[in-house]
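It is worth pausing here to work through a concrete case rather than discussing structure prediction in the abstract. The textbook approach is simple: state the sequence, then state the predicted structure, then interpret. We follow exactly that order.
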Amino acid sequence: MRKIIALALLVLLSCDEDERIDLKDSSYITFGHFYGFCLGEQCIEIFKLTDNGLYEDVLDRYPGSDSPYRGNFKPMDAYKFELVKQLRNELPSALLDIEERRIGQPDAGDWGGYYLEIVHRGKIRFWLMDKNELYLPENLKPFALKLGAYIEKISD
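Step two, the predicted structure:
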């Protein structure tokens, strides 16, 4: 009986591990949200998370799907870094199966989108994700909610 329980725990733990992206070779994650028909500083919030800190882009450019986001990142307070540092461990491996850079219809109906960029195995990968969960694959909906919550915690 103990062997069965131990085996079940091993399977559960290994499955959980397989569902996350291993970012050993990544020095950062860039993430944020954007709204096209919006006024004010809060319309575009893009952040860069490294092992050592959190940075906010001060250019607030609308991200495109042609190339990774190029911003001007300034350091944020250490307490905000503490609020989001766990994000590095929560990226679902399902993202790596998506070749398209647009997931859903980001900002199509003025509901906004999320930007996410990582380095995986030496290659920059980035996506524009829909904020409207009706247009997201089921396996990405929980992550999109987490991403939105992280952005809300650190946005001023």
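Step three, interpretation. Confidence is low (pLDDT under 50) at residues 1-18. The CA atoms of residues 33 and 114 lie 4 Å apart.
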